[in-house]
Amino acid sequence: MSRDSHTNLLLTGSTGFLGAALARQLVDDAHYQLVAATRREAVNLTLGCQSILVGNLDASTDWRLALSGVEVVIHTAARAHIMNDSAQAPLAEFRRVNVEGTLNLARQAVETGVKRFIFISSIKVNGEGESNRVYRFDDSANPEDDYGHSKWEAEQGLKALCSESSMELVVIRPPLVYGPGVKGNLALLCNVIDKGLPLPLGAIRNQRDMLSLNNLIDLIKTCIDHPGAAGQVFLCSDNESVSTPQLIEMMAGARSKTARLWRTPLTLLKLLAHLGGKQAMFQRLSGDFKIDIQHTMDTLDWKPPFTVAQSMQWAFSKKT
Predict the structure, then answer these.
(1) Closest Cα to residue 14, out of 120, 115, 113, 103?
(2) Which pLDDT score is estimated for 320?
(3) What's the CA angle centered on 306, arms 305 and 309, to 5 degrees?
(4) Cα–chain-centroid distance for residue 219?
(5) Most buried one in 65, 194, 203, 319, CB count within 10 A?
(6) Cβ atoms of 282 and 220 closer than 8 Å
(7) What angle do CA 165, 169, 170 make, to 5 degrees?
(8) Which of these is catalytic: 32, 135, 147, 178?
(9) pLDDT tens, residue by residue, 43-78
(10) CB atoms within 10 A of CB 258
(11) Which of 111, 89, 15, 98 has its CA nearest to residue 57?
């Protein structure tokens, strides 16, 4: 994978939040020749790269055409964490896509001579966040939900497969990733901020690590050909913890709004969350979530190139 010539890449999940942004940067880099795998239809994604229809991600997906000549696979496609999951057997669905689908791709990658497999896992393999604890790359796995369990099982299967072949495995476990077009709770916060509604979160004094989309993309690109990445598990973050009020203030500033934060006692917020069945949301908003990325920085001689302030402005400013 010499930097003197281009590296042939296969990217899965190329229409997703991470995949689409990553694809745009890879196409613009002359060091890479990109093939984008698509689930629904083979289109050029307006990116200027080849796309190949592979269909749904499961144990029966045929990857042979997409893998032809590929040196590195970047696997971002997954059944993501779903709020209010309507599946009758959520764990089985997560396993069908995230475990069986991933290992099927990896086995075919081995057969076609792929040199490196970069797997985008999740910090949920480590856990959901605990006070006074900092997550490390060498922690024992402690997934608490079905999504986290499926990612951990996929990691284990990939490790076993690569130990019996010459294909190198790189595992990246991101926390909450934010960027332009982010969905979920951050999108809801943006909506509240835009409407000028008050948020009773001003008394929270937590510390949470997140990861901007642009920093994650830079890390993935580093892992494509860095010799030290082989066989490693990398935790990642912006390396700058923020409290929930700080997050809201930065989001509001990026949108040229004023954050309306009320200092409601945490005991009252906790009670209201309990009565409303929103304990998990309260924990995400008020609890700590700390990640030690020193191993990642030391192994790869890497650090997040964008600050939280820069990333928040990029992610949440209103586009005209």
Answers:
(1) 120
(2) 39
(3) 160
(4) 11
(5) 203
(6) no
(7) 170
(8) 147
(9) 545 567 888 889 889 999 999 999 999 999 999 999
(10) 11
(11) 98
For helices 185-194 and 244-254, angle between their N-to-C axes, nearest 10 degrees: 60
Q: Are 68 and 54 in contact (CB under 8 A)?
A: no
Token duo for residue 101: 């689908």
* Phi, psi at 239, each rounded to 5°: 65, 25
- Residue 176 near residue 210 (C-beta atoms within 8 A): yes
Q: What CA dihedral angle connects 55, 61, 64 and 65, to 10 degrees?
A: -10
| Counts of helices then strands in the chain (DSSP H, E) | 12, 11
Give the residue-averaged pLDDT of 29-51: 77
Alpha-carbon gap, residue 172 to 74, rounded angstroms? 11
147 catalytic? Reply is: yes
Report the alpha-carbon distance of residue 175 to residue 152 in Å, rounded. 14
CA distance 241 to 209: 5
- Find out whether 222 and 291 touch, Cβ atoms under 8 Å: no
Distance CA 124, CA 267 (A): 27
**How does the average pLDDT of the chain come out, rounded?**
90
| CA angle in degrees (0–180, nearest 5) for 140-145-303 | 55
Distance CA 263, CA 55 (A): 50
Tell the residue number behind the tokens 């302030």, with chain if given.
309
Check if the beta carbon of residue 216 is closer than 8 Å to that of residue 238.
no
Domains and CATH numbers, the chain: 7-173 (3.40.50.720), 185-206+243-286 (no CATH)
Tokens (6 digits) for 263: 């200092």
Measured distance CA(74)–CA(10) in Å, rounded? 6
Residue 187: partners with Cβ closer than 8 Å, 6 or more residues away: none
